[in-house]
Amino acid sequence: MSHCGDDDGGFDSLIKFLGAVGAGYLGYRIFKHIDDQRRLEAEAIEQARVAAEHAAQVERIKHFAETLLMRAAAVLFIPPPALILTIDTPTAATDGNAIFVNPVWLQILLNTHCNDKLCAYSVVLGIVAHELAHRIYDFNPGSGDHPHTRELRADYVAGQVIRALQVPEAHFAKVLVEISSVETETHPLYSERIRALRRGYEDAIPPPMPGAHPAHEPSPRAT
Ligand SMILES: [Zn+2]
Q: What's the gap in Å between 32 CA and the centre of ligand 1?
């Protein structure tokens, strides 16, 4: 009986070789795993950063709109109602109590139309004052005005409030062109709406309101 020393040596080499391949493969898997982990972690961090940035942006919009809602309510001599940001409302609305604003819609509107603080003031004031007017006039029992009458009255009030707070109405007027580019059953054409807005603006007497100048107010990111 003789051992096949050479064969054994070959077998050992093969085992060593396979061991090395196995170790290499294992190493590759481990590094790949670490790499995947790092990539997933980086993705999770990025997602969290985007979510935090989005939340901060919504918070800024909310603060800005709430500030202007308070100002508008003061002009109209009513206590400011709650402002609720929700994507369940396509644009802005009121149920007779709270004012609802879609923050995504508002952000897009500001990004599209505004390059400065004064423009953002005009647009957001116009929106919240318009909704406040609906809240004041259109939720009384027996208030059976034609929807167009309601809209034009709300735009007229928006013009008054915008003037009272010494903000230009032109930016809100530009937004009306976009949001009422066609007449619907509920909303008149932008030309009528702008006429009502300007009438309100001209009829209002801007009272001296120290501290009410837009330059002192926070603003949303509207670049
Ligand atoms: Zn309306």
A: 58
Residues 69 and 99 sit within 8 Å (Cβ to Cβ): yes
Spacing, Cα 179 to ligand 1 middle (Å): 11
Cα(94) to centroid(ligand 1), Å: 9
Say how many Å lie between the CA of residue 25 and the centre of ligand 1.
67
**Phi, psi dihedrals of residue 167, rounded to the nearest 5°:** -120, 145
Is the CB of residue 122 less than 8 Å from the CB of residue 66?
no
Question: Measured in angstroms, how far is the CA atom of residue 110 from the centroid of ligand 1?
Answer: 19
Strand-pairing partners, residue 93, are 100
Beta partners for residue 161, in sequence order = none
Instruction: Check residue 28 and give left, alpha or beta (phi > 0: left; psi -120 to 50: alpha).
Output: alpha
pTM of the model: 0.75
Amino acid at 216: H
169 alpha carbon to ligand 1 midpoint, in Å?
17
Q: What is the pLDDT along the chain (223 residues), one digit of tens a residue?
A: 555 555 567 888 888 888 888 888 888 888 888 889 999 999 999 999 999 998 998 999 999 999 999 999 999 999 999 999 999 999 999 999 999 999 999 999 999 999 999 999 999 999 999 999 999 999 887 677 899 999 999 999 999 999 999 999 999 999 999 999 999 998 999 999 999 999 999 999 766 555 555 544 544 443 4
